[in-house]
Protein: Kelch domain-containing protein 9
Organism: Balaenoptera acutorostrata
Amino acid sequence: MAGALGGTGGSGWTWRPVARDPLLARAFHSCTELRGRFYLVGGLLAGGAREPSSDMVVFDPAGGQAVRVGARGGPRRSHHDAALVGGRWLCVVGGWDGSRRLATVSALDTERGVWEAWTAAPGSCPPAGLSSHTCTHLSDRELRVAGREGGTRTQRRYGSIYTLRLDPGARTYCYKEEGYHTVSRSGHCAALLQSPGPHPGHQLLLFGGCDSAEPEVAGHWSHGKIKEEPPVAPCLMEQLARLVSSGQGSRQGPRGLRHHSCSVVGPFAVLFGGETLTRARDTICNDLYIYDTRKSPSLWFHFPCADHGLKRVGHRTCLWNDQLYLVGGFGEDGRTASPQVCILDLFI
């Protein structure tokens, strides 16, 4: 079991290692679940690396095995995001290629094992370049992209919101900038959650990536506009509900957190780790935050951890088979990539 337990009173949590493979050691990669496999694309293999990786590793959580996949033409990317389209195409959106920030789309045809560079459709209005942004799946062919555009010299003072429509048949993509903006964010996370209160629906919330502790709405949809998927982790949902019942909720979330992970588990957004902007030293975190939307107003629950070995930045969490998995990321020194895969264990 990995180090000391976090939590309060008689409750606690930890990340329990279940696999270890050097192929998994990377940070600022993407990790997408498809048919019981985790597809890891790109990332940085060590802190200070200038060139991101172009390889893809598939991890089997049931067997605990990782395999490098030799699909040709893989994109060299870090600080990107990825989304599954049509149950077949793994679309990598934007990111850093070692020399510039991109807004292009590369897609892995998982049936053929081939990477394809999709082309911009006529009328597409792409961002100036994306990195450390988020892509959220809204429908089978539509993503919502949120984040700061461009580099440090060219970026806007606000964050742009784009709808990205994907056409697997034509192998094209089309960006449309929405008519509203957010606070300038980079290294944030996004969570599509049911709206609390008397009017049911969904809202896309952005957490972190700037000095503010306040979540920000990057989209709102009335009931029925977004296909509501049934809970995929009933046991984990119940455990999270019991864990937050042991804590003290707050309207105030984590301030100045970036490059953390976020997974939606029913009415909960589960955030872990990241890098804080609030202090000059010991910036990499190992805190667990749970955002509970079951009642209005939504509340934050903070569960700290004493184990420095669990500090992570640039990592990913992935939900599968009623378990939340932690994959990759740099550790406490901000340079050494973790080769471990861990499962979140909750003790109530």
Summary: The CA atoms of residues 247 and 297 lie 16 Å apart. The chain has a mean pLDDT of 92. Residues 234-245 form the longest helix (12 residues). The radius of gyration is 19 Å.
